[in-house]
Please model this.
Amino acid sequence: MSLYRSLILVASFSALTALAGCAKDPSKEAPAAKVSEPAPEAKPEEKPAEPPPPASPTEAPAAATPAAAPAAPAADGLALTGSIGAIGSKVTGSHELQFKEFKGTIALKDGKPEGGALNFTVQTGSLTEIDANPMKEKFEGHMKSPDFFDAGKFPTAEFVSSEISAKAGEKGATHLVKGKLSLHGVTKDVEFPATVTVAGKDISGKTEFSINRKDFGIVFAGMPNDLIRDGVVLKIDVKATLP
Model:
């Protein structure tokens, strides 16, 4: 093969790769979650109890001050339905996944999301690709392998909220949700915007936010000419019904 022809082939391959690189990155279109190492749990200080001063024989004992009424606790968790999924992408395109099996609850406090709670657990081995793909079975098997979710070793991924506060955000978000996300054997503190609404007896929660998969130990690079992007979009669209 002549040097000229070799240069033409290399140039053609480079051009095709550059064109493929024009595929959009879904993680750039979603708000990025704030991800950090879990804060150490605070240990309460133990102080020795001080005995009350002796009552004066000439004074009547003071009337006991009634204890303040405790804040109304969050309502019992209500079972979630809906969908939980993810979008990953590489140079040439993207793949959207959905987890067919998950369980979770959402709870309100005084009838409002603020101060309530959200948690869910997904079975990583239940993932399925929702896009049309002639290599669907092979692709799903690869996603469950140690290169990605490693479903055999880490059969579940879990989120447990620590705070839900009212805060307007991007794309109509009404709340900021904080909590711990455990994925691929790694647990991180995360914060992300969500739209949480209560209408009559219907509660709904919806969010799309991006995380860096490498923060959770998923580091498979992909093919040299079709690298996998670090950003992954998590999609949550759940609802519950008050009794």
